[in-house]
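Good morning,

Both structures are done.
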Amino acid sequence: QGQLVESGGGLVQAGQSLNLSCAAHGVFDVMGWYRQAPGEQRELVAEKSYYGRTTYGDSVQGRFTISRDIRKHTVFLQMENLKIEDTAVYFCHARQFSSTNPYWGQGTQVTVSA
């Protein structure tokens, strides 16, 4: 079964950038990122299918960029112009072909300070 390994979380100041990566041990259709702040629902950040279809959450559109290296089974999230409200645990997400059951990474903390 597929496994997701995240890296790249950390502490940054507002307006700065941070990059996340997630390596999958398996082939997936959709790969992407969700985030969740304490007491809040988990929300979509961005996702990209194997064939390049891309979706962004409204709150990150224009600031975050998702990309994939298909051959390396890796998805990246480039986060620019970070805001305090971007502070959350970011979870890698993946779904296999012909499946609705998601895989989740362990989560990586992104904290944006003033």
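Second structure follows.
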Amino acid sequence: QVQLVESGGGLVQAGGSLRLSCAASGRTFSTYVIVWFRQAPGKEREFVAAISWGGSSTYYADSVKGRFTISRDNAKNTVYLQLNSLKPEDTAVYYCAAGKTYGSSRTHEYDYWGQGTQVTVSS
């Protein structure tokens, strides 16, 4: 069982930066792949970024590649998502999720979800 809590969202101007955190409970955190998804109003939840169990592998949606960076600190049971060069179209609720499958961008592959944190980018 893993419980996830996101934080770090907020209101930022276009071009600005934020760092989101996903704090996890549970002693098996390091055995889970952690991903970030986001959901804008009226849209489907979409994959953003993923990081492997040890943190050595990452991959990103094309829409955020080069602007967002995912990282993890297993000693702190925390995954981070650094958001740089933000655009108004990045506005969404950002969710972290945990699962056992690396390489999937499908929501049903992930067993545990946080409650989300709102990111709003003004133009």
